[in-house]
Amino acid sequence: MSKHAMPFICFCLSVVAASAQSDCHYTLHGKVVEAKTNTPVPYVGVLVRDLAIGTTTDENGNFSIKKLCRQSYILDFSHVECQKHTESVIIDGNTEGVFQLQHDNKLLQNVVIKAKKVDLASTQAQATLAGSDLDKTKGAALGEILKSLSGVMSLNTGATISKPVIQGLHSDRVLIVNNGVRHEGQGWGLDHAPEIDPFIAHSIAVVKGAAGVKYGVGAIGGVILVEPRPLRDTLGVGGEVNMLANSNGRLGILSTMIDGKNNLFSWRLQGTAKKSGTLKTPQYILDNTGLEEFNGSTMLGFRLKKAKFDVFYSHFYSKIGIFKGSHIGNLTDLKNAIEGRQPATDAPFTYTINRPAQRVNHDILKVKTTLPTGEYGELSLNSFFQYDLREEFDAHLPGGKIPTGFSKPEVAFQLPSAGLRADWTHRPFKNWQGGGGFEVNFQSNNTYAGALIPDYQQHTEGVYWTERWRKYPKPLEFEAGIRYDERHLSVDSTRFGESNRRFAFKNTSANIGAIYHIGTKGKVSFNVGTAWRNPNVNELFSNGVHHGTASFERGNPDLMPEKALSTNLSWHYDHAFFEVEATIFQNNISNFIFQKPDSTPVLTIRGAFPSFSYAQTDALLRGGDVTIQAHLCKNLVLKTKGSLLFARNKTRDEWLPLMPADRLSAELTIDYQSFKYLKNAYASIGFSAVRQQTRTPLSISDYQAPPKGYGLVGLSFGGDVLLKKHHFQAILTVDNLLNQVYRDYLDRMRYFSDAVGRNISLKLKSNF
Amino acid sequence: MFQKFKIIQKNIFFKITLAVLTVGFITFSSCKKTDQEPQENLNVLKIKIGTNTYTWSDIDGTGGVLPKIDTIKLTPNGTFATEITIQDGSVSPAKDYTAEIIAEKDAHLFVYRAISANLTFTDLAKDSKNKNFGQTATAKTTTASSGTLQILLKHDADKSAIDPSKTGETDIEVVFPVVIK
């Protein structure tokens, strides 16, 4: 085989590295393999054209070239009896590449080399959504988009408010890092969705499990990393237009991006407008479920001397109507609404948003500076300011007056935050790579209407160091890190019948992990990490009726910080015909904060409400998720995903409430079909099944038993449309094809209404 | 030369960082100036039956001190005019909300439910569409008995429904003990 294959092997490859002349200490580790058999190809000459340095692959096909800068290179790969072929690849930082030699039948003398950039992989379980997979989900809220990743679910308040759930945890236990900075929004409420425009994202990665060392306070269940598209790196001006229309809710989205680069700087302008009317279940219209969203962002990148600056500003605005049938005054109303089944309020379609509603504004200003620190490494500084304003509008207030308009909210919070994060990465030293840094963060809350949570000020300081060991091509690599954080919280709790309180929370987090590569196709990753969070002000000081759930909530100022110890074990196998990614995890959380039911209800003028006090227990979450992608035959791919979760309250020896039920999904896709006007076309059919949640606590009586399991069918078609000189991408998706009536356990609106019915969505994307 | 370079870089960096942080702190300090909105608080319901007035009050609001609830004492086989007053008793003098509710009577409904006590409510006050409103009514007692009287104030109830109390939202739901003897 190899004897015959050799003449067809040709090597010419240009490796384009991102620009940054100053730091010339990157190493490219490569492996050259034959594409079909994956067998390594030895004795291939590799030459960096401009530097006139080079090397040869060893017996196992491996090579490495040191002292590469971040700039464009052309690498010439050469082998006996070979013709040249050019293929470009982007490398940024220390890079591992697998270079496949692909035999092209039509041109026997030609062999295409494909390279794929491989960053040092995280030892922690991680999933990324980017490219066409991200395009398929566009138009949905961030929480909905992430559901397409295995092990990630969403906690909903109706179809429009959606929070991501990672390994069973959400809200204060999941951290969102938007463009390199912690997203400081009002994440505590179950109906507070992340204030992020998904159209900003170029890729969204989810880190599963505790990641306190890298990300600090709050990364107990995992971290969501939203990465905007990098600034344009070639001279000129370009852009992208996205248009989207949904049948359900008659939603329309227009999202535009223009970017450019001249000799002085790179820039980008981006904006999204979104408007939707009332949504439909298969049987009725959900009154007042419209939404509107207007977002804009701008980014500017330039260099001054050796320093590189990135300035980013974004504004997010949304106004979301809350389903009218869910607005209740007391427990009797809640029970009536549940027994009523069919929502009492039935209305015609409208784009108008009425009370009850929520309105959110979020601003981020960020400056990132990267500067080399002599010969030894690179310093990156992120300073940010964020301002979050959340206003909630009730449909009516006790008393005669019926509020109208949106000038006076019943509940409103202002949450400004500012922070600075400095990360220093040292130049690879022997086989060590790593760095450390510190983070300071200030935040203040002003509840200027309503009295759900008290005003507070807090400041947080953290310092960390991590190191990574990798001796290429040894199969074992490992990493370790440590971090110390302090948070000082002072609460203005006089309105809550308490004197002002000050709290100081301190914690050390640590992390160790390893990856073992099994041949070229498989690897096993293992990670043990810790993380923590302090009790939030609502957990410390709540004292009132939470109307959404018709329960009285009592805070507890003596709560201790919550600490997580999570272990993840992942196995990845990448065969030519199938890929497997399987993760099992365990998250042991001490001082897990939960709502413990009190024995007597609280009597108010609105009637008796069941009462809950914030308490702590030890929780143990165990589970796993698996993704199998099989290439059944040419262009036919079957992707199967499944996840399981067992979440126990150890102290009370029962299940934890509101945990995602087991689920399984499968998607069959025909890929890469080309027709006259349509290239790269695909068609897929998907099926997802969710079991009824049977693992619920006995001591906390739910107003309604967890809904029955359900199965949904979806379709998706797409491709690149070529009309004369115009070229655009089109995707047509159908969700809930069979217009299935169902309710989901993790949807807080399940008490009041069915989930939304069939939706046909058309997405168009064009680059210019 | 290299040293000088470094200093320039640092200056630029610190200026920009300082600018971001300054904007931050200006907003921080400006936020604090917003006033706290006073909350509307219904916490006292008074029902005048004949010449006596009975009070259900929870002036410290939800939680805390238990509500104070009078026992309604009536004579058998009587007919009484009734009238409800609603107040915020947490302020002094107590703020009355009854007039506001009467002004929005089309959207409100008082519901009376006696259990075990031989007590009925008729002649409920009407709204502008001649549907029940019920802020005033006539109470009739028959034989001696004891039990409870539940009074609801519903908002946006469907007044044509078979049981209007099962529709709309509940503003008030209180229970008085009743003794007829």
Major β-sheet profile of chain B = 7 strands, antiparallel
Helix content, binned percent of chain A: under 10%
| Count of DSSP strands of chain A | 46
Task: Give the number of helices of chain B.
Answer: 2
Strand residue content of chain A: over 45%
Q: Summarize the helix and strand pattern of chain B as letters.
A: HEEEEEEHEEEEE
Q: Unreliable stretches of chain B, pLDDT < 50, 5 or more residues?
A: 1-9, 29-38
Largest interface: A-B, 60 and 57 residues
What does this structure look like?
The complex is a heterodimer of chains A (768) and B (181). With 768 residues, chain A is mainly β. Chain A has a 22-stranded antiparallel β-barrel. In chain A, strands 11-16-17-14-15 form a 5-stranded mixed sheet. The radius of gyration of chain A is 27 Å and the shape is globular. Chain B has 181 residues and is an alpha+beta fold. Chain B contains 2 helices and 11 strands, in the order H-E-E-E-E-E-E-H-E-E-E-E-E. Chain B has helices spanning 2-31, 98-103, and strands at residues 44-49, 52-57, 68-69, 72-74, 79-88, 95-96, 108-115, 119-122, 136-141, 145-155, 169-180. In chain B, the strands form 2 sheets. In chain B, strands 1, 2, 3, 5, 6, 8 and 9 form a 7-stranded antiparallel sheet that branches. In chain B, strands 4-11-10-7 form a 4-stranded mixed sheet, with no helix packed on it. In chain B, strand 5 (79-88) and strand 6 form a beta hairpin. Chain B starts with a helix and ends with a strand. The model of chain B is unreliable at 1-9 and 29-38 (pLDDT under 50). Chains A and B meet through strand 24, helix 5, strand 25, strand 26 and strand 27 of A and helix 1, helix 2 and strand 11 of B.
